[in-house]
Amino acid sequence: MRILPALVLVATTQFVAAQTAISQQIKADSILVSNRVVEAIVYPEGAEIVRSGSFAAPAGRHELVLEGIPETAELSSLRIEIDGAQLLYSKIHQGGPQLPADPPEEAIEALKALEEVQDRVAALEQEARSLRLASDAAEAEVTFLAQLGDNGDLAGGDPEALRSVAQMIGAETRRARQSALEAEAQARLVDRQLEWMELEVRKAEAALNMVAFDDRDRHRLVLGIESAQEVTNGQVNLTYRSPYSAGWAPVYDMTLIRGETPMLRIERSVLVGQETGENWTDVALQLSTLNPSEELEPPLVWSRSYALEDPAPVASPRMMNEPLIEAPVIAEEAPSTYGGSYQSVPAGLAVSYAYDDLVSLSTNADLLRLRLDQMEFPVEVYAAASDTTDGTAYLMARFTNSGQEELLGSNVTARFVDGTFVGQLGFAGLVPGDEGELAFGPIDGLQVKVRQVARSDGDRGLISRSDSMRRVEEVELRNLTGEVWPVELTGARPRSEHDSLTIDWRTTHPPTLEDVDGEPGILRWDFDLAPGEVWTNRIETEMAWPDGKVLR
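^ that's the sequence the OP posted. Answer follows.
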């Protein structure tokens, strides 16, 4: 529990020795360049980071030393730009802690707060141990008194003396048991206090982590430069990737505004987090939909080959000893594949969001929500229902993405109706020009009832063994609200996969659409339902098949 402050204290007290060792590795003509993260391009997975530092160097050859590059940096992606001097070579020293000379004041205060909480925890733990020792001592006293009462040597003593001993044993046993119970009860109270204090410890550790310096291994970069000017004031920019230590995801608040002209308002935000091992302070942030960790080239395509072969013999009880010969069949060999799944991200189709203000983001601690913009679309509001089970209709909004940007998919979209939160769902995304549908919860006043009116078939169960079947169902929609609702009722009609299976299907109201969204057998009825109105649809299904066949 005290590992983190111990590391911070050791790092602080031993900094002078560490800096002395580091300085011995830096040549006299070396120039230590202070640098920090100034820009970050964050992808859905990973980030490209730019760190910058300024230096002043006289004419001649020198070495610039840049420390503090975190171990999460992908060194193979490192790109170096120097303004004001010519780059001759670069060297990278991997690993080793590099600590600041003076820990920030807020880190020292956070460390003190954590130590105070830990001291309180240690005191409570000591108190709990003391109480349980007292409880154990009282239980031991009870055991001793019980053994004393069982002592056979007392059996032949004076009755009056025995009575006094018995009273003493009883009184002392009650006292000892009472002491044990009180000590255990107090210990349990302390245990509950400890549970709360553990939460305080974690909060204090998180607060320290947000402001304290990080003492994990860092990389040191040494750059050989040559300056022709008498005094050069230059700048070094380092760009590298941090593949799996940062990311972002879109978050939407979607509000359906009802009325004479219904609208859909979408407030777009993003969640950004990073675990690069160093805090970002006043960084220019850009978000990109590109994912450089994915494949860049399509998989190889291999030719397909076919061959003819005889099927393996299948034995039966009547033909156990007879050869089984069947016509050859065509077997298709599984094609070989190379590489994994491929998702193309053409450069011209990527979307980038540059945030106007500078951003600060702590490593492993912050999850930053940034607002992007607000978009509005006209919508068609309707009620969607299904004829499969009883229930209610659902409030839906259909709209077209008339903007110039793709609405990216999101796992988190809060849904509101006229400002009231109704729930949270995912969103698949929508490209410009495409139509989408959004759900906004049940409409309690639009009730759906499905009942079976008649049924006639053979054996009941999952498998029917007769040669015919007849079913009659009724679907009822009742409007108990005070407004007219456009309704879209979805259902399905049975389909036959064999010519010998005939299906006669009739309905009171013919469907408005068949094979909805290209799905065979999916139907839809569109109609308006006035206040108090009841809409009923009777569906009759008759199926017949040859005798001896089984309907599945």
